Amino acid sequence: MNSANNIRECEQALADLKESEERIKAIVNTTADAIIVINGRGCIEHFNPAAERMFGYEASEAIGKNVSMLMPSPYREQHDGYLARYLQTGKPHIIGMRRELVGQRQDGSLFPLELAVSRVDHLEYFTATIHDLSVNRALEQQLLSIAEQTQRQIGQSLHDDVGQELTGMTMKLQSLKKYCADSHVPERQLLDTIIADLSRTRQKLRTLSHGLIPVAVDAQGLPHALQELAADINRLDGVVCRFTCCEGVQVRSNLVANQLFHIAQEALNNAVRHSQAKTIDIVLEAVGQQISLLITDDGCGIPVNGQRNHRGMGLPIMKYRAGVIGGSCMIEAQATGGTQVSCQVWDKR
Length: 349
Description:
Blueprint: H1 2-30, E1 34-39, E2 44-47, H2 49-55, H3 59-62, H4 75-89, E3 98-104, E4 110-119, E5 125-132, H5 134-177, H6 186-212, H7 222-234, E6 240-245, H8 254-273, E7 279-287, E8 290-297, H9 314-324, E9 328-333, E10 339-346
Helix pairs in contact: 5-6, 7-8, 8-9
């Protein structure tokens, strides 16, 4: 009797286990995000339908292969080393964290993604949940384009309308001066002061309006634009700015070139206005399939967390611009003093 009961209990336990497995499988296979399970060697053990749609591989093509097949260089070559070090030391690189990276589809195309990796307790298995950020990036590009268009309209309006009014007022005051022939009378001196003040205001307005009108930079013109940006900084008293474009740099996308230029522009503005830097280096280089932009200064630096209240939105905007083009932007204090802004992006048409 006991034997029969034990058999029924085992059969019920097996049925419950099978039902639980089917339920979990149904959840994993119907989720909108890609879910990939790998073993301790980095080989794919499970590849859900969302992963098939996202990367373009059938599950049968992916299972048993190294997960690095879904990554572009240099991450593809580095992945197994990261995994082996984690298993040896227990120190995570991305495990337990949520990060934005770039994935590579079967056709070779790249796309932005958000990755979260967790380890299965007591087993050398890792589960990766991946969300495609392509739609988010497209929307961000549209928002950025709208913001720049609005900014351009404001700058143009300041230059054309307000600037013209200030010019007209100056001309009227110049005419009024003719009625005050004696340059020593208080009225004439007051007029000269007002005209001088208006002239300075017009110059400030011109500078402000030009700053509000975004500079359009195409792929071929990025090195030249950065060289001109460095030359503008060199015109400031006591500041030396050097630009280096390493051999082999080929920026193909106008969007990437434009955003990299604005990141450099913002970084230089921070270095001069907030860090009081005396020496600034701009380096544009190619690292594997990546374009790298480095801006290094010898100023007072930034706190460890990279934030400083009086810098306003400058630092977040640089990171936002990098995200829009599927890249990353790091702002770090250097051990020797000063700040380094590092931006990496995969350049594609």
